Amino acid sequence: MSTGAGTAVVVNTVGGTLIKAQTNGIDVIALGAGSTSNITSSAVINVATGTAILSKTSTGSNTVTNTGAALNTNSAFAAGADEGIRAESTTGAITVTNAGNIGASGAGNGVDKYGVVAVNTGGGANTVTVNNSGAIFVDTGGTAGIYAQTAGTGDVTVNNSGVIDPPLFGIFAQGGGNVTVNTSANVTGGTGIQSTSTGGTAFTNTVKVTGGAAVTGTAGNGIAAFGPAGAAVVVDAKASGAITGQTGNSNGILATGTGDVSVFTGAGAVTGANGATSGGIKAQSTPGGPGVGGAVVVTTGTGTVSASQGILATTNGTDASDTVTVNINGNVTANAGTGVLTKAVNGLNTVNLNAGKVFVVTPGNDGINASSSGTGGVTVFTAAGTDVDARTAGKNDITAVTTGASGDVNVTVLGTLNLAGFAGNDAIFAQVNNAASTSNINVTSQDRIWGGVNGIEATTNGLGAIAVKVNTAGNGLVQAANGSGILASATNAADPSAVSVTVGDAGGVFSSSISASGAGGFGISAKTAGTGPVTVTTGPGVTVNQNGANSVGIDAEGTTGTVTVNSGGISVSATNTDIFATGLGTLNVTNSAKLLSATNIGINAVGGAGPVTVVN
C-alpha cells in the first residue's frame, strides 16, 4: 500500500511465473492524491479466495494489463476465487486490458463473482475502459463477466472479443456520459448485455455486436440498453449472430430511454420469450413531452424477429421530430400478441415491410398496428412479395389509426394480406377517430388481400377525405368472407371532404375481383354523412360479386354533394341490388358492366332535389 501523494506504483511480472495465494495474487493500493498504479502481468495466478489482480487508486490513473496468462483457472485450488481482475479508482482514469482466460469451463470452475471489474466510485470526467480478449467463466449466481461503471460523466467503454459464460450479467456497463459496449464474441448471462447511460442528451449509449457473435440472456433480456435521462440509445446488431432472451417476460432486444432510441439488426435471429409482455424487439422513447430526443428507429435485417410480441416501437414525445420509423426486412412472428405495434404523437409513425412476412400465431392480435394520437399521422407500406397474416377473430392484418387533430393515415399494400387464409377481422382497417380532425385516409392495395369480415374498411368521423384505390397498377383481388369487400365511410355531418373508391385502371390493363359474402353487405360501398362528393369507379378489368343475403354490389351514398358511379367493369352481381346510388344533390350513374344476379333491382338511383342521370 502507498499513501504518499504523487507516488507511481509499477508492478511487472514475467512470463512463466506462477503466483499462488490464499487471498489476492497481486494487490496494489495507491491512495495518495495523484498516485498511480500500473500493473503488467504475464504470470499465471490462482487464488483460493479474493482476486487474482487487485489495484486501487484515489485520484490517479489505474492501469492493469494481463498479457495472456490464465487467472484462477486451477479449478481445484481456485474454486473459491471471487474475481479475476479488479481495478478501482475514486476519480482517476481506469484501463484494464486482459488477454488471458479467467476461470475455467464447467460447473463450479469459474470465478464466483466477477471476471473483470473496473469501477470509478467518486465521479468526475475520467474514463473507464475494459479491453478483453480472454474467455471469462463465472459460476452460476455470480454477478458479471465484465463490470464497468463510473459514478461520473467520463466515457465507459468495453471492447470484448472473448467468450463470456454465464453470470447474472454477461457484460454490465453504466455511466453518466457516453457508454459503449462492443463485442465480437459470444456473451451469455442471465442478461446477456446490459448497458446504461444516466447522462443527458449530449451523450450516447451504444451496444454493438459484430463477428456473428451470439448474445443470450438465460433468465432476462438478450440485450438491454437504457438512457433514462436523455442519452441516445443505439443497439447495432447488424453483424451479430442470434440475440436471445429466453424466459418469462424477457426480450431479445430492449432499448428504452427518454432520448432518441435506435435498433438495427442483421442476419441473426432476434428472439424474446413468450411471456405476456415479451418482445423480439422493444424500442421505446418516453420523454413525455417536447425537447431534444424522442425519435425511435427500428431497422431489421433478414433474420427472424419473434416473441410473444414481434416488434414494439413507441414514443410519447410531442415534437414533430419525435417520429417512429420501423423498417422490416425479414420475417416477424408474434406468438401471442401483435406482430408489429407502433405508436407516436406529433411525429410521423411509419411502418415499412420491405421484405418477409409478419405472422401472428392464433390466438393473437393484429399483424401491424400503427397509431397516432397527435398531428403526426400514420404511414404503413408493404412491398411486393410480402405478406401479413393475422387470423385471430376480431383482429386485422393491418390497423392504421389516428385519434389526433391532423396527420393523414396512409396505407399502401403492394404485397398480399393473409395469402394462406383470412384475416380474423379486416385485411386493412384505416380509421380517423376525432370529430375535429382534418386527417385524410388514403388506402391503396395492388395485389391480393383476404379479410375474414371486410377486405378494406376506411372510416372517419372527422373532417377529412377518404380515397381507396385497388388494383390500379397491378392484378389482384379483395375477398371478404363475412362482410363487405370495400367500405369507405365518413360519418360526420360536418365533413365537407370527398369519399372515393377506385378499382382497376381506366385502360383495363389490370384485373381485379371484388368478392364478398356478408349478409346485408356490399361489394363496394362509399358513403358520407357530410356534404362532400362520393365517387365509385371500376375499370374494364373489374368484377364485383356480393353473394351474401340481401346484399348490394356497388353502393354510393351522399347527402348534398355529387354522387357518381362509373361502373365500367366486366360484371356486377348481388342478391338484392347490383348498383345502388342515393343523394340529395347531383346523382350520376354510368354502367357498362353486366348486371348478373340481383333479385330486386339492377340499378337503383334514388335522388333528391338535384338532377339524376342514369346511363346503362
Please tell me what the overall shape is. Answer: elongated
User: C-alpha Rg, in Å?
Assistant: 32 Å
Compute the number of helices: 0
Which class best fits the helix and strand makeup?
mainly beta
Q: Residue share in helices?
A: under 10%
Biggest sheet character: 22 strands, parallel
What does this structure look like?
The protein is mostly beta strands and 616 residues long. Helix content is 0%, strand content 49%. It has a 22-stranded parallel β-sheet, with no helix packed on it. The termini are far apart.
List strands and helices in order, with pairings:
Blueprint: E1 8-12, E2 18-21, E3 26-30, E4 36-41, E5 44-47, E6 51-57, E7 62-66, E8 83-89, E9 94-98, E10 114-120, E11 128-132, E12 136-137, E13 144-150, E14 156-160, E15 164-165, E16 169-175, E17 179-183, E18 187-189, E19 191-197, E20 204-209, E21 215-217, E22 223-227, E23 232-237, E24 243-245, E25 253-257, E26 261-265, E27 270-271, E28 279-285, E29 296-299, E30 305-307, E31 309-315, E32 324-328, E33 332-334, E34 340-344, E35 349-353, E36 357-360, E37 368-372, E38 378-382, E39 387-390, E40 398-402, E41 409-413, E42 416-417, E43 428-432, E44 441-445, E45 448-451, E46 456-460, E47 466-470, E48 476-480, E49 486-490, E50 499-503, E51 512-516, E52 522-528, E53 534-538, E54 542-546, E55 552-557, E56 563-567, E57 571-574, E58 577-582, E59 587-591, E60 594-595, E61 601-606, E62 612-615
Parallel strand pairs: 1-4, 2-5, 3-6, 4-7, 6-8, 7-9, 8-10, 9-11, 10-13, 11-14, 12-15, 13-16, 14-17, 16-19, 17-20, 18-21, 19-22, 20-23, 21-24, 22-25, 23-26, 24-27, 25-28, 26-29, 27-30, 28-31, 29-32, 30-33, 31-34, 32-35, 33-36, 34-37, 35-38, 36-39, 37-40, 38-41, 39-42, 40-43, 41-44, 43-46, ...
